[in-house]
């Protein structure tokens, strides 16, 4: 008995019908209409997605990673300045001016406030949260050690100096190490957002170019078949895609220029200046702790030499302070020049104090005083004030450059997407008019 014929495969039938449909002129026109519509809608979606991704990164620069990076640097600076000021107050003893004591307390309060603010806006970074928690735990411990040192000093007990050195060791070896890691973590996030915000929308531009080629091929094919030079719908679609592509490219470059200015005039010089200020604080802490040790250790002298050499070594092309000067924008150059001059004065005054050798009282009088204005400490304070003004100018340059870039990118994405969708509608309508001739 013969076997019944196999049932026809419905998939094969559909393929045959599709091939038959495409073999006709109306079928090819319908396929071209669908392909052009898909290309233009895809271009619209990709352009909008890439523009909005860049806008989100630019928004984070202005409102999240930019402020967080500066906040992390300020946490480090506040902690380092507290350590320096605590040593200065200890050296002055009963003569410590209220302003110096208030500066120490302000440093601790600033560090605590910024740690709290960073904890609530650290962008979900587990490493940043861990470091913030560690610093929050250690801050009251450090403050307690300093207060113990002060209390023992008021009783004229030599153990006070040992407690202060122990507190400073905790600050230098543990707390500032954690603060530096926090700075590095937040700066990496800042760099990542700069890279994302400045990325050129290559995929969208290439899609636009492919779409333009497809539109040109369709118009050429229609001209050969119909002898009609223009198809208004396809011309309008081509114009829409071309304008959208140019707008996207020019807008992307313009946004990138603004962000590059924010990086070159703000974020980058701020980073270098922050490092220079940190090195200066470390040198000043070593200067004061050397006197607290009363010649009992050479490590603070070694640390001073290392830190001041890091700031401005013999080679004039090197040094963190010189790097910060070279990177400074015009708005900060005057303050940076003042800071460099005050650094040289600070170094000279430190040398004059160190030249007193074992004369502790003479060294102390030239290093820090409750009344004299020509001390090493006064020169450092003046320098730090000038550098703080330069940092404020660079911070403003960053904020001005990145402000509004996210909004411009969102408008760019929406505008290009709307143009592409309108172009898709025009292309479909243009081909429909040719299809009507076959009905």
Low-confidence stretches: none
Beta-strand level of the residues, as a percent range?
Answer: under 5%
Radius of gyration, CA atoms, in whole angstroms: 34 Å
Largest sheet data: none
Which term fits the overall shape?
A: elongated
- Provide the residue-averaged pLDDT: 86
Number of strands: 0
Topology:
Blueprint: H1 10-22, H2 25-92, H3 98-120, H4 126-154, H5 159-198, H6 202-226, H7 232-293, H8 299-311, H9 320-327, H10 333-354, H11 360-367, H12 376-402, H13 405-436
Helix pairs in contact: 2-3, 2-5, 2-6, 2-7, 2-13, 3-4, 4-5, 5-7, 6-7, 7-8, 7-9, 7-12, 7-13, 9-10, 10-11, 10-12
Looking at this protein, list some descriptive labels.
439 residues, mainly alpha, elongated
Descriptive overview:
The protein is mostly helical and 439 residues long. The chain has one domain. It contains 13 helices and no strands. Helix 3 runs antiparallel to helix 4, helix 5 runs antiparallel to helix 7 and helix 10 runs antiparallel to helix 11. It is elongated, with a radius of gyration of 34 Å. It starts with 9 loop residues before the first helix and ends with a helix. The model has no long low-confidence stretch (mean pLDDT 86).
Summarize the structure.
By secondary structure, the chain is mainly alpha-helical. It is built from 13 helices and no strands.
């Amino acid at each position: 008995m013969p076997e019944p014929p196999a049932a026809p495969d419905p998939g094969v039938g559909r393929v045959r019908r599709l091939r038959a449909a495409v073999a006709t002129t109306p079928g090819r026109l319908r396929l071209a209409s669908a392909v052009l519509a898909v290309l233009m809608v895809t271009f619209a979606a990709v352009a909008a997605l890439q523009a909005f991704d860049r806008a989100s990164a630019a928004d984070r620069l202005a409102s999240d990673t930019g402020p967080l990076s500066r906040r992390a640097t300020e946490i480090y600076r506040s902690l380092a300045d507290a350590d320096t000021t605590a040593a200065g107050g200890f050296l002055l003893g009963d003569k410590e001016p209220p302003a110096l004591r208030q500066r120490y307390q302000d440093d601790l309060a600033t560090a605590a406030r910024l740690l709290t603010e960073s904890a609530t806006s650290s962008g979900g970074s587990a490493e940043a949260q861990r470091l913030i928690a560690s610093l929050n735990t250690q801050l009251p411990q450090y403050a307690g050690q300093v207060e113990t040192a002060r209390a023992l000093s008021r009783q004229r007990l030599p153990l006070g100096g040992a407690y202060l050195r122990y507190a400073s060791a905790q600050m230098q070896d543990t707390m500032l190490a954690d603060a530096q890691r926090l700075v590095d973590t937040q700066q990496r996030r800042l760099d990542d957002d700069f890279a994302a915000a400045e990325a050129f929308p290559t995929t969208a531009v290439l899609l636009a170019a492919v779409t333009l080629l497809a539109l040109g091929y369709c118009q050429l094919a229609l001209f050969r078949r119909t002898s009609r030079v223009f198809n208004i719908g396809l011309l309008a679609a081509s114009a829409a895609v071309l304008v959208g592509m140019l707008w996207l490219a020019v807008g992307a470059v313009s946004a990138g220029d603004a962000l590059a200015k924010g990086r070159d005039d703000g974020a980058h010089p701020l980073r270098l200046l922050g490092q220079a200020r940190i090195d200066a604080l470390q040198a000043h802490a070593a200067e004061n702790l050397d006197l607290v040790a009363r010649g009992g250790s050479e490590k603070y002298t070694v640390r001073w030499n290392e830190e001041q050499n890091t700031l401005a070594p013999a080679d004039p092309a090197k040094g963190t302070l010189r790097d910060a000067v070279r990177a400074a924008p015009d708005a900060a150059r005057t303050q940076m020049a003042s800071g460099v001059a005050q650094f040289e004065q600070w170094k000279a005054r430190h040398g004059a104090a160190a030249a007193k050798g074992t004369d502790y009282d003479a060294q102390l009088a030239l290093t820090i005083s409750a009344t004299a204005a020509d001390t090493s400490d006064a020169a450092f304070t003046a320098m730090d004030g000038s550098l703080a003004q330069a940092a404020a100018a660079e911070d403003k340059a960053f904020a001005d450059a990145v402000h509004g870039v996210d909004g411009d990118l969102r408008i760019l994405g929406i505008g290009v997407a709307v143009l592409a969708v309108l172009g898709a509608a025009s292309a479909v309508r243009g081909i429909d008019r040719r299809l009507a001739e076959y009905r």
